[in-house]
Write a structure and sequence with these properties.
About 30% of the residues are buried. The longest helix is centred in the C-terminal third of the chain and has 6 residues. With about 220 residues, the protein is mainly β. The chain has 2 domains: about 100 residues, no CATH class; about 120 residues, Methylamine Dehydrogenase, Chain H. The chain is elongated, with a radius of gyration of 18 Å. The strands form 4 sheets. Strands 4, 5, 6, 7 and 8 form a 5-stranded antiparallel beta sheet that branches. Strands 9-10-11-12 form a 4-stranded antiparallel beta sheet, with no helix packed on it. It has a 4-stranded antiparallel beta sheet with strand order 13-14-15-16, with no helix packed on it. This is Transducin/WD40 repeat-like superfamily protein.
Length: about 220
């Protein structure tokens, strides 16, 4: 995510938990963060980062040496923290009171997305139904209903592998892909799922264009 117009920065996360912030102009490393959750790093060695968002700067802050990061791990540990960039990549000043919350007690988060206005975040994963969070209040505002049991009475949990907001101007319309070859469209303003379509024979791992979805090219 490019965070500013002047000297834009890009955030890159590693599965081991480290994060790098680089300049998109010359590729220089501006910050290397071993872990945003350093105090809890030892207990989360098997909890990889699955989502990273670098918040955009306001016009008045475009030249600031600070940036705000939102991360999410496989086990649903979310953290939002501001950092000050130092003279060297390792000289980073951390926020003393970062915002942290848990999105799920179990299961795995596999996909996430922040809306265009950076007010809401969308998450989904293995046995984790698509859900939307208010980033200002750090509260969940909507969760998709679990699928019903089949005709044999067997419940199969959904595994979401990709998700995004359907429109840049509307956080209420969502698109999510599953490992069972489905693309699901949601409208949370109606509190219900809109539709579900089969999509080929492979897991859905990338977000499809709005034109293709609207055209019904599945």
């Amino acid at each position: 995510m490019l965070d500013r117009e002047f000297d834009p920065l890009l955030g890159i996360s590693q599965k081991c938990g480290s994060i790098e912030v680089i300049s998109t102009i010359n590729g220089d490393l501006r910050a290397h963060i071993p872990s945003l959750c350093q105090a809890e790093e030892a207990s989360r060695k098997d909890d990889a980062i699955t989502g990273l968002h670098l918040f955009k700067k306001k016009q008045s802050e475009s030249s600031s040496r600070s940036c705000t990061l939102l991360t999410c791990t496989t086990k649903g540990h979310a953290s939002m923290e501001s950092i000050e960039l130092g003279r060297s990549p390792t000289d980073v000043i951390h926020d003393r009171s970062p915002t942290k919350w848990n999105m799920c007690a179990s299961s795995n988060i596999l996909c996430s997305k922040v809306d265009e206005n950076e007010n809401y975040a969308l998450y989904g994963g293995k046995s984790v139904e698509v859900n939307v969070w208010d980033l200002h209040e750090c509260v969940k505002i909507w969760t998709a209903k679990s699928p019903p049991k089949n005709t044999l009475g067997i419940f199969t949990p959904t595994c979401f592998t990709s998700s995004t907001f359907f429109s840049k101007d509307d956080h209420c319309k969502l698109v999510a892909g599953t490992d069972s070859h489905q693309v699901r469209l949601y409208d949370i303003s109606n509190k219900r799922k809109k539709s579900s379509k089969e999509h080929g024979s492979k897991k859905v791992k990338s977000k499809k264009s709005r034109k293709r979805l609207e055209g019904g090219d599945y």
